[in-house]
């Protein structure tokens, strides 16, 4: 074993272990985690069958921790570009509060723990899906697609779409068409949501060398893609109703909300100059979050008030 | 340079982190115990049914 000078070893020790509990919590990307928890609750409610409330809570906890672990691993790998972008430079790793190695250890431990708990307490299908989701987000999206292709968000967005599928599998032990329909909604929603952000944060991504659609294909092409994905999202949002997952309240609510989504997307497409263009992007970005929240919230609301499934009321 | 790698502020921060960790571990112990009871009672109900 080589001798390590005392001064260097104590300096290194002092540099590590500086993160507070709050810094570690920030590594879990709590805002993303809250959306994951919400969509996972909807998956639990929408799935046919029942799960003991305590087991449902454990499933949600494991999914949330798995999502948080993905966030921590993402912050470990992306520390270099996070330090460049205004939006991300105050994250714990670029700020120096947590060392990259600490973030890696924290993320890897939570990832393994969440999959293990889900597998041992709920079922193997849900655990396998959670493991795949973490792998997909960390390896396929963060390590590969994000820095390589402007389509990164299209494929990488799948990682954010898995949570309702995992919670559905926690109830049924299977991957059903209903679960896939919930997956497809988030999958198709992600590109217009994220590109709206990228349009007004374009310089940030360009400075970090991340090939987002606006700085590779141009702003006009991005606007066109936002509109195309928004138009495709509308029929996809009705698939759960056609599969009998939800009822007429969902259909009416989703029709109104989707019309509003299209209105905002058209505004982004039409307004291309100056402050009005930025404003249109910000509005679409903000509304897209509300849209997903409200569309998904309609499913548990229907369950609570006892609305029959859409297919059962069709003649 | 001081021989102590951590100053008082660092130590306070680490202590807080350790307390949070202890609380999380305690909650996990209770949670796993409760899960065991739920799973066992579920299995017992299944066996009684058959």
Write the layout of secondary structure elements.
The complex is a heterodimer of chains A (315) and B (50).
Chain A: H1 6-15, H2 21-27, H3 30-46, H4 53-77, H5 79-82, H6 92-95, H7 100-121, H8 124-145, H9 152-156, H10 158-161, H11 163-172, H12 177-200, H13 202-208, H14 213-216, H15 219-237, H16 239-242, H17 248-270, H18 274-305, H19 310-313
Chain B: H1 8-49
Strand content of chain A: under 5%
The arrangement of helices and strands of chain B along the chain is H
Biggest interface, CB < 8 A: A-B, 18 and 16 residues
Parts with pLDDT < 50 across at least 5 consecutive residues of chain B: none
Tell me, rounded to a whole number, the average pLDDT of chain B: 82
Please outline the major beta sheet of chain B.
none
The major sheet of chain A is characterized as: none
Cα distance spanning the termini of chain A: 79 Å
What is the subunit arrangement here? heterodimer
Share of helix among residues of chain B? over 70%
Radius of gyration of chain B: 21 Å
Please provide a brief summary of the model.
The complex is a heterodimer of chains A (315) and B (50). Chain A has 315 residues and is an all-alpha fold.
List keywords for this structure.
heterodimer; A: 315 residues; mainly alpha; 78% helix; B: 1 helix
What can you tell me about this protein's structure?
By secondary structure, chain A is mainly alpha-helical. Chain A has helices at 6-15, 21-27, 30-46, 53-77, 79-82, 92-95, 100-121, 124-145, 152-156, 158-161, 163-172, 177-200, 202-208, 213-216, 219-237, 239-242, 248-270, 274-305, 310-313. In chain A, α3 (30-46) runs parallel beside α11 (163-172) and α11 (163-172) runs antiparallel to α12 (177-200). The N and C termini of chain A lie far apart (79 Å). Mean pLDDT of chain A is 91; it is low at 4-14. Chain B has 50 residues and is mostly helical. Chain B is 84% helix and 0% strand. Chain B has 1 helix and no strands. Chain B has one helix at 8-49. Chain B is rod-shaped and about 65 Å long. Chain A binds chain B through residues 6-7, 10-11, 13-14, 17-21, 24, 52, 54-55, 58, 61, 121, and chain B through 1, 3, 5-6, 10, 13-14, 16-17, 20, 31, 34-35, 38-39, 42.
């Amino acid at each position: 074993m080589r001798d390590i000078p005392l001064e260097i070893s104590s300096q290194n020790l002092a540099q590590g272990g500086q993160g507070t509990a709050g810094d570690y919590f920030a590594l879990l990307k709590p805002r993303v985690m809250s959306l994951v928890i919400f969509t996972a609750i909807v998956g639990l409610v929408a799935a046919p069958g029942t799960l003991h409330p305590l087991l449902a809570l454990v499933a949600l906890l494991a999914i949330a921790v798995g999502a948080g672990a993905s966030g921590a691993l993402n912050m470990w790998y992306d520390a270099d570009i996070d330090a460049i972008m205004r939006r991300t430079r105050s994250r714990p790793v670029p700020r120096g509060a947590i060392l990259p190695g600490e973030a890696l250890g924290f993320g890897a431990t939570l990832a393994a723990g969440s999959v293990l708990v889900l597998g041992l307490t709920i079922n193997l299908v849900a655990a396998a899906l959670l493991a795949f989701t973490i792998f997909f987000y960390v390896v396929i999206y963060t390590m590969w697609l994000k820095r390589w292709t402007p389509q990164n968000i299209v494929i990488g967005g799948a990682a954010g779409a898995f949570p309702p599928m995992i919670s559905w599998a926690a109830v049924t032990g299977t991957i059903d068409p209903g679960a896939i329909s919930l997956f497809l909604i988030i999958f198709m929603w992600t590109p217009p949501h994220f590109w709206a952000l990228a349009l007004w944060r374009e310089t940030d991504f360009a400075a970090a060398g991340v090939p987002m659609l606006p700085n590779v294909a141009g702003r006009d092409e991005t606007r066109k893609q936002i509109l195309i994905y928004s138009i495709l999202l509308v029929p996809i949002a009705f698939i759960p109703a056609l599969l009998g997952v939800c009822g007429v309240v969902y259909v009416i609510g989703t029709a109104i909300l989707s019309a509003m989504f299209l209105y905002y997307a058209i505004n982004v497409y039409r307004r291309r100059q100056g402050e009005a263009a930025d404003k249109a992007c910000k509005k679409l970005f903000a509304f897209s979050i509300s849209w997903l929240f409200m569309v998904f919230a309609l499913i548990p609301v229907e369950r609570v008030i006892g609305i029959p499934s859409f297919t059962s009321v069709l003649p | 340079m001081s021989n102590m790698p951590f100053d008082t502020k660092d130590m306070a921060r680490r202590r807080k982190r350790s307390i949070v960790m202890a609380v999380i571990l305690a909650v996990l112990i209770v949670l796993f115990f409760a899960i065991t009871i739920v799973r066992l009672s579920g299995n017992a109900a299944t066996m009684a049914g058959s």
